[in-house]
Amino acid sequence: MPDDSRSAELFEQLARIGKAVASPRRIELLDLLCQGERGVEALARAAGMSVTNTSQHLQALREARLVETRREGVRIHYRLADDDVCRFFLSLRDLARSRLAEVERLLAGYLLDDGELEPIGRDELLERARRHDVVVLDVRPAEEYEAAHIAGAVSIPLGELEHRLGELPARAEIVAYCRGPFCLLAPQAVEILRERGFRARRFLDGLPEWRLAGLPVATATEGAP
Amino acid sequence: MPDDSRSAELFEQLARIGKAVASPRRIELLDLLCQGERGVEALARAAGMSVTNTSQHLQALREARLVETRREGVRIHYRLADDDVCRFFLSLRDLARSRLAEVERLLAGYLLDDGELEPIGRDELLERARRHDVVVLDVRPAEEYEAAHIAGAVSIPLGELEHRLGELPARAEIVAYCRGPFCLLAPQAVEILRERGFRARRFLDGLPEWRLAGLPVATATEGAP
DNA sequence: CCAGTATTCCAGCGATTTCTGGAATAATGG
DNA sequence: CCATTATTCCAGAAATCGCTGGAATACTGG
User: A48 to each of A77, A141, A188, B17, B64, how far by Cα in Å?
Assistant: First the structure.
């Protein structure tokens, strides 16, 4: 009982989504877009690829309806079409992690993921942040912090961390977070902080997981007088 | 701050999964494998493609660690590597449905999906089946019924339905199910049954959703004396 | 050990994808 | 309306993918 052409069309449609996530470049763009809206050039810079190429990949993502655009003057901002896309991306990521031994091997290769960083989970972080028991530190680029960050978090992009250590309290425990468990920013931040004598740990997740869990998120830098 | 080569490798790994679901043929194979384990030739027959080609696609799925094999004599059975793969497949399918208008259009084109079939949900079906208030009818090929079916369901593959109507009670309501909401078997069965004067409805989901929800599943035909 | 069957390997081709660099388009600020 | 900037469109070249058909391999049952 071979399938008729009608269901073939359906599988063709599902494969549109599949094709969209079949390229490492597009995966990286999705990863960045999970952090929030961003312009073409900024995406190209963050991903280390040419603007032309970035634009092309973004078209592919748009053709699969995974992203949408918004024009602001001469600039065009891309964003995920909705939260389901982010959720799907995370489930792809988690599947890769659980199925592909190579992923775990690569993560382990960064030396710092296991117990080393004393990772802290969502619930514990929420609880302790509420009691002002820890300082939550966002080490992603400023642009991403502005787009969305954990409510109450301080922003010091990794590149500026060494110069700005003075802004951090010497006593309190610092919890650094970044894009997610596959991102290297927070681990590197923890390493730097510890070398300088701070008590630092890593947040197990990243901003997207926090946001999707419905926990408090803030945008821009409003609130600091 | 362009990403270094280490995270590039990570994205490469994620893309392995993406590439695996970038082909409509492989999507169809995954859909079939969500119903249960199956041999190469059976998969080829069900998907209407050559054995050689099927084998090749299955290799691709195995390379991405989405499927595993089991040898039984001269035959090789393929199965999903674990439930997470099935869950991922369902989330891909649901994302396609919510994001791609074409999918909804195609489903509507089958004429029969809306209120027409009076679809019944998981909880209601479970409740009514428990009270023996409905007959649950599996209209998938016998092979898939044997691999796994809703506990208590009767098997009449769609192709044999017209000849075997006598096996069904004339009074009771019949709920037909198949592979899932994208599958045409149950809708066609409902159509046939109604033409012959039966009261028939469609189950909203398919076997995979039922199984992943932890609801009772049976294998083979054991239990019928 | 041989014949038979199920599956995989392999070469080759046409189609598709990816990246690059240059040209075209769209909105802005004088 | 022109120069500027951001983005997209458009070839063209290299790499990859998907399908086919024939050969090779692996196991079974005699």
Answer: 18, 14, 19, 23, 26
